[in-house]
Amino acid sequence: MVTDKTVYIVGAGFSKEASAPAQEDLVKKIFEIDRDHPQEFEDNSVQKFRAFLTNVLLVPRKLHDSIPLEDIFTPLDRCIADNVSFRNLSVKDTLNTRDLIYYLIGKTLECTLRSSAKDYIDQFAKYITDKSSARKGHRYANLDPVSVISTNWDTLLDDSIKSQISTHYPNNAVVDYCCHFSSFEPNDQSVMPGLEMLGLGGFSVKLLKLHGSLNWLQCPKCLRLYVDFHNRIAIEQYMTPVNCRYCDAQFGKQGSHKLISNLIMPTFLKNFSNPQYKLIWQAAGIELSEATRIVFIGYSLPQADFEMRQLLARMVRKDARIVVVDYGDPNDQLITEKRKRYEVFFGKRKPEFFLEGARQYILNLLEE
């Protein structure tokens, strides 16, 4: 196999220049959209969320905008994992509350990114799709030049890659999430696992989403993952639940196989026991081990993200070139702190820093 390989790791900052809200601003954004465009949310959904913050978490209304998502999801997930009630909520009510917040976050991202300026993401998608096309014609065993690892739920990059494939490589390529998945639409032949397309002589564009995606749903019975590139099905299932069609055929229509969102939310108790996530994280480790260059775009390497940090510490080669793409003044305190985190973490590998933002970095990449 050719050893020259680049792995791009994209975080929230990758989508920021396309108007995606930062994670710490998501709760505030929920209330802003409800204030300015209340028709976007299901009736009473935001009011239920406020009631949870006020009556269960005991957060005064004036502080609702400021509560970290970790402080919301950590106690919910702990109680659900232990099958115990949370304050005045039963186990079932706790599950319903988490589903409600899933919906509000997903809907907020959808509304915010509906008219995003994502030209640079389209250009990046074209770049990595064209690079990946070198693997077609059963050459994947000797050529594997690029992959993307993402910590984002949004589908900006997914949609752009799918568009590039549809325009330039129809029927010859797929977006490969590096796990076992099926098309949400029964007759959509454009969605298939990457290995299947490679076997047909085409190629795959590897996009490993470590925390899930808004266009995924999973069956809690057979654990199949469903993918839809036309709809944000992780949001829609809150309003119109859908059953797993395979389990319907085998077991009849039952509530036991109603499709659910499997997003990994901000929490200090992230659970990656789901077999699909195990596959994705294992594949991410392999991608990192093969990379001669790793480019972080809009990812701050936070101390709290210990799963990602252990993966990097364990699997990145000692001779890998590390590039960090961010935006800001080199003397800014936040930039200084990020630089120090990367320099301490990667040590002798001496990360290179590009501080003109994702858009400019991608334009430079295309010029090269």
Summarize the helix and strand pattern as letters: EHHHHHHEHEEHEEEHHHEHEHEH
Total domain count = 3
As residue ranges, the low-confidence spans are none
Q: Helix segment count?
A: 14
Strand content: 5-15%
Gross morphology is globular
Terminus-to-terminus distance = 24 Å
Secondary-structure arrangement, i.e. CATH architecture of the largest domain: 3-Layer(aba) Sandwich
Alpha carbon gyration radius: 21 Å
Question: What's the CATH first level of the largest domain?
Answer: Alpha Beta
Determine the CATH superfamily of the largest domain: TPP-binding domain
**Main sheet characteristics:** 7 strands, parallel
Can you give a write-up of this model?
The structure is a single chain. With about 375 residues, the chain is of the alpha/beta class. It folds into 3 domains: about 5-20 and about 115-180 and about 195-210 and about 270-365, Rossmann fold; about 25-115; about 215-255, no CATH class. About 45% of the residues lie in helices and about 10% in strands. The chain has helices spanning about 10-15, 25-35, 45-55, 70-80, 90-115, 120-130, 155-170, 195-200, 235-240, 245-250, 275-290, 305-315, 335-345, 355-365; strands at about 5-10, 145-150, 175, 180-185, 205-210, 215-220, 225, 295, 320-325, 350-355. Helix 2 crosses helix 5. The protein is globular, with a radius of gyration of 21 Å. The relative contact order is 0.14.
